[in-house]
Amino acid sequence: FTLTLTLSLGLGTSFWIYNHIYKKNKNKNKLNKLRSINYHFLRECNFSCKYCFHVDKNSSENVKTNILSINQMKKLLTLLKKAGCEKINFSGGEPFLKAKQLGIIVQFSKQELGLKTGIISNGSLIKQEWFEKYGQYLDWLGISMDSFQEQTLKNIGRNSMNKKPSVMFEQLMQIKLWCQMYKIHFKINTVVSIFN
């Protein structure tokens, strides 16, 4: 069976995973591998979706700086690979708030570890320059889109940048084209709620 784990974690948790799942099971015939990991490497977001449980609703400066260093993330990812991880999805918060760090760890995951890579984003901060530099290392990009109705977006908390739904739709279509250009699988994620 395949186990998918969602991690909002630091280095200590990854050592626990390595010691308790990988080491304890490596001599057994059947190893329950952590094949797919959703790694929420930051909790900061530029939206305020009412249903979201992945972000810290507290807007303190501590939230904005409380992420692992690039070297710590590389160690964590290496441990996850040793524990059997085959696919890593980077999420947040909004991962493109830290676009450079995101690119570096996506590249490392693909190039050095041979993992399948994915990102879940709200799409509002994605730029073509990121694709030009890191697109070759990304397998999947999921964009969260819960409505094209302006009032619904406001009710959900997804329109904090005061963009019209038509502008958001244009951005979504542009991202889809970039994904086609760089041969990245594209998907749309929707959270069904009482608002939409």
Write a concise synopsis of the structure shown.
The chain has 196 residues and is of the alpha/beta class.
Description of the molecule:
- With 196 residues, the protein is of the alpha/beta class.
- It is 40% helix and 17% strand.
- It is built from seven helices and six strands; from the N terminus they run βαβααβαβαβααβ.
- The protein has helices spanning 11-25, 61-65, 70-82, 99-112, 128-134, 150-156, 165-181; strands at 3-7, 34-40, 87-91, 116-121, 140-144, 185-189.
- Strands 1-2-3-4-5-6 form a six-stranded parallel β-sheet, with helices on one face.
- The longest helix is centred in the last third of the chain and has 17 residues, at 165-181.
- The chain is globular and about 45 Å long.
- The protein starts with a strand and ends in a 7-residue tail after the last strand.
- Residues 1-6 have low confidence and may be disordered.
Overall body shape: globular
For the record, give the distance between the C-alpha atoms at the N and C termini, rounded to a whole number: 34 Å
- Fraction of residues in β-strands: 15-25%
Low-confidence stretches are 1-6
* Biggest β-sheet: strands ordered side by side in the sheet: 1-2-3-4-5-6
User: Could you report the average pLDDT, rounded to the nearest whole number?
Assistant: 79
What is the percent of helical residues?
25-40%
Spell out the key features of this protein.
6-stranded parallel β-sheet, 196 residues, 7 helices, 6 strands, alpha/beta, single chain
